[in-house]
Write a structure and sequence with these properties.
- By secondary structure, the chain is mainly alpha-helical.
- 48% of the residues lie in helices and 5% in strands.
- The chain is built from 10 helices and 2 strands.
- The chain has helices spanning 6-11, 52-60, 64-67, 81-85, 93-111, 123-126, 131-142, 148-164, 174-182, 187-195; strands at residues 13-17, 22-26.
- A two-stranded antiparallel ribbon has the order 1-2.
- Strand 1 and strand 2 (22-26) form a beta hairpin.
- Helix 2 packs antiparallel against helix 10, helix 7 runs parallel beside helix 9 (174-182) and helix 8 packs across helix 9 (174-182).
- The longest helix is centred in the middle third of the chain and has 19 residues, at 93-111.
């Protein structure tokens, strides 16, 4: 069932075929998903009861092709007790919203669409990379840590990071790409590390 999301995530369309008819429906959506680190949910630090086989089976529910269609994969650690009781205040939502709106306006002004919608054929025009950023992505591709689809997604995310940068530049720099790559955490080592 989860892999049924792959086509709508990629194309923004759902095709329903029956014996005498085929219908194509628009399906542009934002998918936000979360998973526990293992079947038991991880429990208190060090309290996981799952063996390696259980963790592996649990992770297999999320196929590589499905995960590759997620622009961001970010680990979220269990908050410490003081974070629950005291809180850190954080940044006000209005401040973050204003920054996001400014980045969206920048994208629309530059290319007439959001960065997530840039076709791969236009990435060089709207998200040009500096030499160091190109080398970094080449290295990731050569080491098989990034797929072709992942490459395009990282470039779009890096374009957005560059738009959020207070010292905005039309060229996507190495540090923008490095941050975008950090948002593509591999889940298998993540789950093993948390369950230990």
């Amino acid at each position: 069932m989860l892999d049924g999301l792959r086509q709508p995530l990629e194309e923004g369309l759902v095709r329903v075929a029956r014996a005498r008819a085929t219908v194509t429906l628009p399906a542009k959506f934002l998918l936000v998903a979360a998973t526990n680190p293992c079947p038991c949910g991880g429990g208190a630090p060090g309290a996981c009861q799952c063996d390696d086989g259980a963790r592996t089976r649990y992770l297999r529910r999320l196929s590589g092709p499905l995960l590759d269609r997620f622009d961001l994969r970010v680990p979220v650690d269990r908050p410490q007790v003081d974070e629950f009781l005291i809180g850190d205040g954080g940044e006000p939502s209005a401040v973050v919203a204003a920054r996001v709106l400014a980045a969206r306006d920048t994208a629309y002004f530059r290319q007439g669409m959001l960065n997530a919608c840039i076709p791969s054929s236009l990435l060089d025009s709207f998200a040009p990379l500096d030499v160091k950023a190109q080398k970094m992505l080449r290295s990731e591709l050569e080491r098989d840590r990034l797929t072709g689809r992942g490459y395009h997604r990282v470039r779009r995310v890096a374009r957005t990071i560059a738009d959020l940068d207070p010292v905005a530049d039309e060229v996507v720099m190495e540090h923008h790409v490095a941050l975008a790559l950090q948002f593509r955490v591999r889940l298998s080592p993540l789950l093993r590390g948390r369950a230990a």
